[in-house]
Structure formats: C-alpha cells, structure tokens
C-alpha cells in the first residue's frame, strides 16, 4: 500500500522527466509544458469540486445519509414531550389515580467510571458485602441475587422486582442512607407510574394503569376497570419540541420551538364519594372476616340521580399488592358490579311484584295455599320441613307471601300474569341488556329460557342471570315512582387543554311501571323489615353489636328501611345446583327512606363459612346509609373545576358496532339509545359534525330485522318524529308539553309500517 502511494505521488515528476528525455526539450520549455498541464488539471479538479458541491446542496444526501438532518443534529435537537395522563377524582375533587414517578435502583461496577479527580463512581469489589447488606436490609432484595449481579461481567446491573417501583420517599431515604454509609456506585432511574393514594379503594372498579412501550417511548395505559374503559379519554397526545444546543449539547435558552403541541389527557371525576367509599371499604373488610365468604360485593346508589356513590368487593387488591392478588382464594379480576352475572334469588321478586301490581294481576289481600307442583318440579318455600310442611302458616295472603319471601306465592302470580306479560316486564326493566355506563367488559346477563319451568322460576330469581348494575337500574324505577334511571359512574369530564367540562345529569331511560305500582312495592318491602311474623329481616333477637333490640334489622336514624332479602341457589360446575348447607348467594336490597328513597344499597355474600345471619349485611348497610343520609346535602354539590361547558362533536357512526358506539358516547357524557338489537348502526338521529351539549340524547338505529318499539318516556317530540320516520309509522299527539308521558304501542313489541302511534305529551 505504501509503495502504491509513493508511485502515485511521484508519478507527475517521473512523467515530466521521461518526457524531457524523449523530446530533448529545454528545461524552460519543459517547465512551461508542465505548468499548462497543471493549470488545466486544476481547472478540471475545481470543476469537479464545484459540480459535487452543487450536487450535495441540491440532493442533500451522501449514500443513505441525509446531510441536512446530520447538520441539524449537530446544533439542533427534536424531543418528544410526554403527555400527562388525566387524573381520576372522586366527585369532590379528591385524587383517586394520578401520574407519579417510581424509581429503579442500579449499581455501577464498571471500573472506568471515575470523576474528574479520579475518584471511583463504581462499587469496588471490597465493598460488595457492604452493598449486599445494605440492599438486603433496605429493600429486602435476596442476597444471592445481589451477589450474582455484582459479580457479573456487565457494567451496570439492576436487582429484579424488589429493586423496582421504589417510591420517591423511599428513593430519597436510600440515597441519604448510602451517603451516610459512604457507599458509591448506586443510582436510580426514574420511571413513569400511576399512584393510587387511597390504597384499597374500589380497586376492581377503578382498575389500574401501567407503563407500556409505544413507538419507542413509555406511556401509561389502562389495564383494567375504569382506567381501561376510559383510556382514550385519560390518555393525551404527545407533543414535539426543537431547541438549539451549544458545542457541549446543552440547550441554548430562548431557542425552544413547539412543532406539535402536547395535548394532556382529560380528567375524569367519578360519582364516587371518597368518604362513603372509605367507610364501605372498612365495613366490607369486617364483613369478609366475619363471614369467611368466598366473595362479597356491595354498592351504594343515589336514588334520585342513579349515581354510584360507593362500590366494593372482596377479595380485592391495592396497587402495592396487585402482584400477589391471585394468591387469594376465589379472587377474580372481574368487577363484580358489572362483569359477572349470577342468579339473584329473591331480591328479584321486587320486579315480579312491580309488574303484577302495574298490570293488576295480583290481589295482595287474596290468600293462597303454599303448595305448588309445576310439571315435574315441586316449588317450595325456604321454611319447608322434612315432612313437607312449613314452620309458618301454610295459607297466607300475597302481601304476607312477599314479606316471607315465598317462592310459591311469586310463582302463582307469574302464572296468573302469563309468561308473555312477565317477559314484557323483564324487557321493560331492560334485563338481558347491558347498562352501557361506559365500563369495559360488561356482562349482559341472560333472560330466562323458553322452558315453562324456568319461566316460572325466574319470578323468584332463579333461571335468570343479572349483574348488580342491571339490578340497580331496575331498582331506580321502584325507588323513583316508576321512572327508571341509567346508573352513572362519571359526574364530570374536564379537558385541561380547552378549560371546558362535560357534566352529567340524571338520565331517564324508561318508565316500566306506574307510580302506584312502585309505591306499592316499597310498602311491601317495608313489611319485610317490620312484620314480626313474616318479615325476613325482622329479628327476634336484635343485634347487640349494633345496639339493636328485637325488631327491624335494617334501621337508619331510628327508622326502618324498605328491604328485600334474597337467598339464591348457585349453579354447580357439574350441572344442577350446589347442595352444601350454605352454598347460597345471600343478599339484600335496602332503600332509605322507605317512603321516598334517597339511597339504594345492594350487597351479596357468596358461600359464607361462618353460620349465616342477615346481620352481616345489616352491619354494613345501616352505618353506611346513616352516613349517606347525613351527607345528603353535600352529595348534591360536585367539585368546582372553574371551567366552561364544553361541546361534543358528533361523528359518523354508520356501520360501526352499536354497543361499542354506545359505550364510547357514554364516555363523552352523551345519552345514547340503541334502537333494536342489531350489531351495526344503520342511522343516527344527530348528524355528523354537529356540536352538542353534554347529556344530549342520540338515537342509534341498528340493523335489526324487526322494528321493536323502545320505551320513549321522557323523549322529545323531535326524537319521536325521528323514530316514526325510521319505522315508517304515523304519530298522533295528545296533551301539551315537551316530554313523552305515555305511548300507545307497548315497549318491546314489534311495529309494522303504516301503524299509528299515539303519544301523550307533558312536562
């Protein structure tokens, strides 16, 4: 290679020398000839350089390298600005879930890492034992793992799960301790995280968000519960900024420019009340211990708005115990409020009685004999003896039958109503349909099969599957004089980028029964708690733990509440029902005050191991309802966020999944109504691009093969006209006012084109 370079360098001189010898030119003439050659060579080289320079300016590439990008990188940087995930609050503004940082500890063992004075910034081998003791005592990291990592050939090491997810407070504590003990070489890396300040707080309902890698950067993403369901609302959009830097790579002040503005996630204010939720968690802990049950769940609802004020279940987890959650026997990740359906048992009799009173298919003072055989299936009541007699009177009135929770009495009422009429009321109460409150993975439950025995058994809550959320929706009609409300989980969504908010209001979704029927059911529920002979929640022994004498077991502020108790059989995995002495789902729904309820509380207890008594539920319901009643005025006031009312821009939903669309709209605080049971949306009542206020009702027509009449109670005339146009029917109006009160075509019945619908309007 060296020889070649020498030849190349001396080639012109050799050439000149050879040429001079051949031509015998004089030295002067030879120099002129060489000068001309060099002149033209210089011009040629200069031309090549100019051409190449122009080419580089024009193309800006050398091979696969972009020269503009490369040059900019020397003096300019573009960075991603991480969007902040929205905070989840309770209704008063107390933070439930908020962005935070956690830290991972690392150890430097690279001996080249020293400071400017040559002092080591790594852990010396002689200090390995000292560091082992330090990390084991401070973080509980296994000694063998520490030893293995410190003796590895890597330059920097970490120490597994126990060396990660360290809080800010703990990180500072370790830093100070390491400094005091003169340990060098330990450091921390920051990680984005989600903090849940309340700990045990509606955990399966709220869910959790974890860091996930997205496009090379880490972002928090909802894994379960509300965090997952509202992920698109809570997640923001990252921005981009550029800045100029000096020769050392440091940002030059005043040079930062925004390329894409960061859009932080929206804040979600739930309907939960932190104080009531904390109270419920404490009561549930005690109930779980006292009963030894496999699972428990409890939910408190504002009867006037449908807002869920507190909800909890056991077993549960916290953000710090989540990794060990599945070690708990009978643990489920599902929210028992909305993701698990079950046969509810006798609490379901409230709906049967509501339908019977509404349709006048029951005379409460009429008596019946407590004996019934349906085909080959005997129907029995809970107080049946081994001799097929009963401990309570065998002949009772239907009112007394409700108080003693008689399966036979409810079966006889259902048979008098007929399967079709009973099925119509199940549809009016919207059983078998998801609530669509915006939660993820909601279970739709199931209506009874066409089997005649199952139809009858559904009257007392067997052979039908429901979720607590569906039960609560139905009970709002009984508490609210026939007006049924959609259960709400969100009170407000606030956009910090625009300083606007969407605030929810009570949402009417139907009127399945009359005022008189609903009031009549509440009166009967009161007898469940006050009738000393037949009432299933009337205690002859009282409850010393609550300082209750013999009498009503569910007492709030010295007054008996309206109650319906339940004991449901549980389906066996091998077929039929479980047969253990306490293999039941015990439950109660409590409304207070009985005459005009402010609150609804529902709780169930699955397979307790301790001897069952209804007192376990009363010990949760009574103090919780007492607290709620004392806070009633405060609950009507939500957090003040100093924002103006926002608008929602309607999109094109045609061809989209009807259920997913309804859930998505609910998360933007709109009120979707699905028309029919089709899977796809075929039309919408509000056009694409329109901006509407929160709580606006939007009708979504589906590709159902049948045209099924919805419950139009509380609809506007414009909405009625829209449905009539879709269905091809005629409408006549009676009365005056802005809202539908009654409709001539029954809910859930098929509608034919050309049919006439009469609607009574009012306010």
Would you write up a description of this structure?
- It contains 21 helices and 38 strands.
- Strands 4, 5, 6, 7, 12, 20, 21 and 30 form an 8-stranded mixed β-sheet that branches. The protein has a 5-stranded antiparallel β-sheet with strand order 14-13-29-28-27, sandwiched between helices.
- Helix 10 runs antiparallel to helix 18 (615-630) and helix 11 (349-359) packs across helix 17 (515-530).
- The longest helix is centred in the first third of the chain and has 33 residues, at 27-59.
- The termini are far apart.
- The relative contact order is 0.08.
Unreliable residue runs: none
Main sheet record: 8 strands, mixed
- Tell me the span between the first and last alpha carbons: 101 Å
How many strand segments? 38
Mean pLDDT: 91
Counted by DSSP, the helix tally is 21
Q: Write down the oligomeric state.
A: single chain
Approximate strand percentage:
15-25%
Give the overall shape, derived from the CA principal axes. elongated
Helix content: 25-40%
Strand and helix map with partners:
Blueprint: H1 2-23, H2 27-59, E1 61-62, E2 65-66, H3 67-75, E3 76-81, E4 88-89, E5 95-108, H4 128-139, H5 143-150, E6 156-158, H6 168-180, E7 186-195, H7 203-206, E8 209-214, E9 217-222, H8 225-229, H9 231-234, E10 239-244, E11 257-260, E12 267-270, H10 274-291, E13 295-302, E14 308-314, H11 349-359, E15 367-369, E16 372-374, E17 377-379, E18 395-397, H12 398-403, H13 407-417, H14 419-428, H15 452-457, H16 468-479, E19 484-485, E20 490-495, E21 500-503, E22 508-510, H17 515-530, E23 538-539, E24 551-552, E25 555-556, E26 559-560, E27 562-569, E28 584-592, E29 599-606, H18 615-630, H19 632-635, E30 644-645, E31 647-649, H20 658-667, E32 671-675, E33 681-684, E34 691-693, E35 697-702, H21 717-727, E36 730-734, E37 739-743, E38 756-762
Parallel strand pairs: 4-12, 21-30, 32-35, 36-38
Antiparallel strand pairs: 1-2, 3-10, 4-5, 5-6, 5-7, 8-9, 10-11, 12-20, 13-14, 13-29, 15-18, 16-17, 19-22, 20-21, 23-24, 25-26, 27-28, 28-29, 31-34, 33-35, 37-38
Helix pairs in contact: 4-5, 10-18, 11-13, 11-14, 11-17
């Amino acid at each position: 290679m060296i020889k070649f370079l020498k030849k190349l360098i001396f080639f012109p001189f050799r050439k000149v020398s050879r040429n001079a010898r051949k031509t015998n030119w004089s030295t002067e003439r030879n120099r002129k000839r060489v000068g001309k050659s060099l002149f033209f060579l210089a011009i040629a080289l200069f031309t090549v350089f100019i051409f190449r320079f122009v080419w580089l300016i024009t193309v800006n590439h050398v091979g696969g390298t972009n020269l503009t990008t490369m040059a900019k990188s020397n003096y300019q940087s573009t960075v991603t600005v991480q969007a902040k995930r929205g905070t989840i609050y309770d209704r008063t503004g107390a933070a439930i879930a908020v962005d935070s940082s956690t830290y991972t500890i690392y150890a430097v063992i690279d001996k080249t890492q020293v400071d400017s004075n040559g002092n080591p910034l790594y852990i010396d081998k002689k200090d390995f034992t000292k560091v082992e003791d330090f990390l084991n005592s401070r973080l509980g990291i296994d000694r063998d793992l520490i030893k293995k990592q410190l003796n590895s050939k890597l330059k920097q090491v970490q120490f597994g799960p126990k060396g990660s997810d360290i809080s800010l407070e703990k990180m500072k504590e370790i830093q100070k301790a390491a400094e005091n003990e003169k340990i060098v070489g330990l450091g921390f890396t920051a990680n984005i995280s989600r903090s849940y300040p309340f700990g045990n707080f509606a955990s399966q309902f709220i869910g959790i968000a974890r860091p996930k890698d997205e496009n090379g950067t880490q972002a928090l993403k909802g894994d379960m519960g509300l965090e997952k369901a509202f992920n698109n609302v809570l997640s923001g959009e990252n921005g981009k900024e550029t800045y100029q830097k000096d020769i050392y790579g440091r940002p030059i002040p005043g040079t930062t420019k925004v390329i894409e503005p960061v859009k932080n996630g929206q804040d979600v204010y739930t309907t939960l009340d932190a104080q009531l939720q904390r109270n419920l968690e404490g009561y549930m802990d005690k109930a779980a211990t006292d009963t030894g049950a496999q699972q428990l769940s409890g939910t408190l609802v504002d009867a006037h708005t449908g807002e869920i004020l507190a909800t909890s279940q056991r077993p549960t987890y916290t953000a710090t115990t989540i990794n060990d959650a599945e070690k708990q026997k009978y643990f489920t990740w599902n929210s028992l409020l909305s993701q698990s359906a079950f046969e509810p048992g006798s609490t379901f009799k409230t709906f049967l009685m509501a339908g019977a009173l509404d349709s006048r298919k029951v005379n409460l003072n009429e008596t019946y004999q407590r004996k019934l055989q349906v085909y080959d299936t005997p129907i029995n009541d809970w107080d049946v003896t081994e001799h097929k007699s009963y401990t309570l009177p065998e002949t009772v009135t239907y009112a007394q039958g409700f108080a003693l929770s008689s399966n036979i009495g409810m079966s006889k009422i259902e048979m008098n109503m007929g399967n079709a009429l009973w099925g119509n009321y199940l549809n009016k109460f919207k059983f078998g349909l998801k609530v669509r409150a915006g939660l993820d993975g909601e279970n739709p439950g199931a209506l009874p099969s066409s089997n005649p025995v199952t139809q009858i058994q559904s009257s007392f809550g067997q052979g039908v599957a429901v979720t607590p959320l569906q039960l609560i929706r139905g009970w709002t009609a009984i508490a609210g004089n026939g007006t049924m409300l959609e259960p709400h989980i969100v009170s407000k969504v606030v956009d910090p980028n625009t300083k606007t908010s969407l605030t929810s209001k009570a949402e009417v979704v139907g009127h399945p029964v009359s005022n008189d029927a609903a009031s009549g059911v509440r009166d009967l529920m009161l007898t469940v708690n006050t009738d000393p002979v037949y009432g299933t929640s009337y205690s002859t022994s009282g409850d010393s733990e609550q300082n209750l004498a013999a009498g009503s077991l569910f007492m709030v502020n010295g007054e008996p509440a309206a109650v319906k108790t339940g004991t449901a059989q549980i389906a066996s995995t091998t077929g039929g029902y479980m047969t253990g002495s306490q293999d039941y789902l015990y439950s109660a729904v409590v409304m207070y005050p009985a005459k005009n309820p402010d609150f609804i509380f529902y709780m169930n207890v699955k397979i307790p191991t301790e001897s069952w008594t209804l007192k376990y539920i009363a010990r949760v319901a009574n103090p919780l309802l007492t607290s709620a009643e004392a806070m009633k005025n405060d609950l009507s006031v939500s957090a003040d966020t100093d924002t103006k009312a926002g608008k929602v821009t309607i999109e094109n939903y045609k061809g989209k999944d009807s259920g997913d669309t309804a859930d998505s709209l609910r998360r933007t605080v709109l009120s979707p109504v699905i028309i029919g049971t089709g899977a796809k949306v075929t039309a919408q009542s509000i056009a694409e691009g329109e901006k509407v206020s929160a709580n606006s009702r939007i009708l979504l027509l589906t590709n159902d093969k049948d045209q099924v009449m919805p419950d139009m109670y509380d609809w506007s005339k414009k909405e009625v006209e829209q449905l009539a146009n879709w269905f091809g029917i005629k409408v006549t109006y009676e009365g005056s006012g802005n809202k539908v009160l009654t409709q001539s075509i029954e809910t859930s019945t098929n509608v034919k084109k050309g049919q006439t619908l009469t609607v009574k309007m009012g306010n």
